[in-house]
């Protein structure tokens, strides 16, 4: 399961509690583009939603988990 750098960045920011709109503003993208990255990350990870995608990415050590 290979994710693109943008997909990983979006999932990392979602794990930190950011919304698609906040991620879009921070990265200079549209909200729709962020949602596109997340949707495709979900498909590649074989999950149904962003929460499952974040959980699987953390378990797979693709993104860091929260340390607080």
TrEMBL record:
- What are the UniProt keywords, alphabetically? DNA-binding, Plasmid, Transcription, Transcription regulation
- Source domain of life: Bacteria
SMART domains, per database record: HTH_LUXR
Molecular function terms in GO for this entry? Answer: DNA binding
Query: Which Pfam family, giving just one, matches this sequence?
Result: GerE
Keyword presence, Repeat: no
Domain HTH luxR-type, residue spans? 1-61
Supply the InterPro entries for this chain: Sig_transdc_resp-reg_C-effctor, Tscrpt_reg_LuxR_C, WH-like_DNA-bd_sf
Q: Do you know which Gene3D superfamilies this protein is assigned to? A: Winged helix-like DNA-binding domain superfamily/Winged helix DNA-binding domain
| BP GO terms, sorted | regulation of DNA-templated transcription
**What PANTHER family does the record tag this protein with?**
DNA-BINDING TRANSCRIPTIONAL ACTIVATOR DEVR_DOSR
Q: What is this protein called?
A: Helix-turn-helix transcriptional regulator
* Organism for this UniProt entry: Phenylobacterium montanum
